[in-house]
Write a structure and sequence with these properties.
Number of domains of chain B: 1
Order of helices and strands of chain B: HHHHHHHHHHHH
Radius of gyration of chain A: 23 Å
Number of helices of chain B: 12
Largest sheet of chain A: 6 strands, mixed
Strand content of chain B: under 5%
Number of domains of chain A: 2
Structural class of chain B: mainly alpha
Structural class of chain A: alpha/beta
Distance between the termini of chain A: 34 Å
Helix content of chain A: 25-40%
Oligomer: heterodimer
CATH topology of the largest domain in chain A: Rossmann fold
Strand content of chain A: 25-35%
Shape of chain A: elongated
Largest interface: A-B, 54 and 41 residues
Order of helices and strands of chain A: EEEHEEHEHHHEHEHEEHEHEEHEH
Number of strands of chain B: 0
Largest sheet of chain B: none
CATH architecture of the largest domain in chain A: 3-Layer(aba) Sandwich
Chain lengths: ~325, ~270
């Protein structure tokens, strides 16, 4: 496994502010006979937003819990902010901030009490805590509700407070485990904006797990796709989508007919084709130039209900790699 | 296993580890701040203790005065009321809520010492137990109970009550950490019931008969009660106090061993 030196610019175009923030090798976690994480290798540079994408149960949260020192790996190694998560967990904890999947808040405390306690537990003085609360006030943005019990907060307010709690000690590496699950579109957009700001203004490394393809596409410098505990692909969203082709032609057929597959695959400009339900997905270098010949070929053997042309999504990548859609 | 061949850059952290006492104080402070919002956890014990203290005295005072000259039922019942009040006082239910809400994970993500999370809760329990004992003792003093061991005896009496409360509270935390189930924690007080009644809580140990006398001899609560009673009714008795401390220690060793094992298990399970 290689590590980039300070000042290098990676092949992905992400500027490197120094060596890796997160490195894992052969990370495994078993629960009884079930292997939740099965040999995950990661190398995430400082200052990078890394999107960790996968369906429910793929192993995203288990990986995060190991990297955050909440769970001991069954085997393999993991370094976060330069420290081994298994051997030096205390040093790792000083340098990471974590917002877990469910906002981990005490409903009986007020927002203010929760953040002050959080600051004390990170060894900050009273003055330092107050200064951090001031700095985070724009992010939290809940006004007088800070003095009210957390159980009275809305979902969006809880998420923002949870994020503030993860940031109170100015961590180097921020883990966000499905930070926008359950949020309305406005709150989601706000969270995205904050993630971008933390990364661009503070240079914070952000490890973001998500099951929303759009979120990974929108935020991440690089994306790792995990399925059944294993990384099945890694790269920038653009690189991953190029694996499918520059364009995707989607043909909705009256009936699935495997004869169509061979016919379409042999057409010039077609990179590949496969069925998903009654939809035939055709990857192409130049969709506009290819769609006509695809339409003619399909019409000769089956009934086509409609034909559309679009750019590939990460969902197409996931389908290509695993044979399933993320939503399945 | 692949070995990682890297030298990862390390930077000084803004955060730092607090002293152990600061960790405990922060956790205990939070546990105590929750009490006013969870009065349902402290009002029933004090109500039960005061209720039985008053009712038992009302029921038995005439009988004991006429049949046991010189026997003071109020002094005799005070330790029973204290044990009824402070046994099972714990923030273990609150810890279960932390497990369920994920807040325990948030605490575990900080550099706080794992043991401090437990000790902080126990320190809060001692503070609550003391606060519960004071009105019971004050009522007893108001009813004319006098400590033969004097004012220092009152302090030792409160201290023994706190130690017993602490020893028993650890069972609640063991159950909380093991199960994460509020119903299981709430029922932990039931563990105590047989111990409280199969002892000298209502009649002197010498008056117990048959199998109950044998059970009471092996019941640690008997010695805690006798130790407390010695301070009220008998003055300073090294034997009674020593036996009480020994009984509390024995229960404490068992409860804390279970508690630490449960904490270790929960941390391992993540």
């Amino acid at each position: 496994m290689s590590v980039l030196s300070a000042g290098q610019v990676s092949a992905t175009g992400v500027p490197d502010s120094g060596p890796s923030a997160i490195v894992t090798a052969g990370l495994v976690r078993r629960f009884g006979g079930n292997t939740a994480v099965d040999g995950v290798d990661l190398d995430i540079r400082r200052g990078e937003i890394y999107g960790f994408l996968g369906p429910n149960g793929a192993g995203k949260s288990t990986t995060v819990r190991m990297l955050c020192t909440l769970l001991t790996p069954t085997s393999g190694q993991a370094f976060v902010a330069g420290y081994d998560v298994a051997r030096e967990p205390e040093r790792v904890r000083l340098r990471i901030g974590v917002a877990l999947q469910e906002a981990a808040l005490d409903p009986k405390q007020t927002g203010l009490q929760l953040l002050r306690l959080q600051g004390r537990l990170y060894g900050l003085s009273r003055a330092e805590v107050e200064a951090r609360l001031e700095a985070l006030s724009q992010l939290i943005d809940i006004g007088d509700a800070m003095k009210a019990p957390i159980e009275t907060y809305s979902g969006g307010m809880k998420r923002r407070l949870d994020l503030a709690a993860a940031l109170v000690h100015s961590p180097e590496v921020l883990f966000l485990d499905e930070p926008t699950t359950g949020l309305d579109p406005v709150s989601r957009a706000r969270m995205w904006e904050e993630v971008r700001r933390l990364n661009s203004e503070l240079g914070m490394t952000i490890f973001l797990t998500t099951q929303y393809l759009e979120e990974a596409d929108e935020l991440a410098d690089r994306v790792g796709i995990i399925n059944r505990g294993q990384i099945v692909a890694e790269g920038t969203p653009a690189e991953l989508k190029r694996q499918v082709g520059d364009d995707v032609i989607v043909a909705r057929l009256a009936h699935r007919d495997d004869a169509c597959l061979g016919l379409v695959r042999d057409l010039p400009g077609v990179l590949g084709a496969e069925f998903h339900g009654d939809e035939l997905l055709v990857g192409a270098h130049d969709g506009a130039a290819t769609i006509g010949s695809v339409a003619v070929a399909l019409a000769s053997v089956c009934q086509v209900r409609n034909l559309t042309l679009r750019t590939p999504t990460l969902d197409d990548v996931f389908l290509e790699l695993t044979g399933n859609r993320m939503e399945d | 296993m692949t070995s990682i061949d890297i030298t990862v850059g390390r930077r000084p952290a803004v955060a730092r580890r607090s002293r152990a006492a600061a960790d405990v104080s922060a956790i205990a402070g939070r546990a105590l701040r929750r009490v006013p919002r969870e009065l349902e956890t402290v009002i029933p014990p004090i109500f039960i203790a005061l209720f039985f203290f008053i009712v038992n005295i009302g029921t038995l005072q005439h009988l004991t005065q006429s049949h046991l000259p010189g026997f003071d039922i109020k002094s005799f019942m005070l330790p029973t009321a204290i044990l009824l009040g402070v046994t099972g006082i714990s923030r273990a239910g609150s810890l279960v809520l932390d497990i369920q809400s994920g807040y325990l994970d948030r605490l575990l993500l900080t550099p706080v010492r794992r043991l401090a999370i437990l000790v902080g809760h126990l320190v809060a329990d001692v503070a609550i137990a003391t606060a519960l004992m004071v009105p019971i003792v004050a009522l007893a003093l108001g009813l004319g109970v006098r400590f033969r061991a004097g004012p220092l005896g009152v302090l030792v009496f409160l201290l023994l009550g706190c130690l017993w409360s602490l020893a028993f509270a650890a069972f609640g935390y063991a159950i909380a950490l093991k199960t994460g189930n509020p119903a299981a924690v709430n029922s932990s007080f039931l563990l105590f019931f047989p111990f409280l009644f199969m002892t000298s809580s209502y009649v002197p140990k010498g008056q117990l008969s048959g199998w109950l006398s044998a059970v009471a001899t092996w019941n640690p609560v008997t010695y805690v009660l006798e130790g407390l009673r010695s301070l009220v009714s008998g003055g300073w008795s090294a034997t009674a106090l020593g036996e009480a401390l020994l009984a509390i220690t024995a229960v404490g060793v068992l409860s804390f061993s279970l508690c630490l094992a449960a904490l270790k298990g929960r941390l391992r399970r993540g």
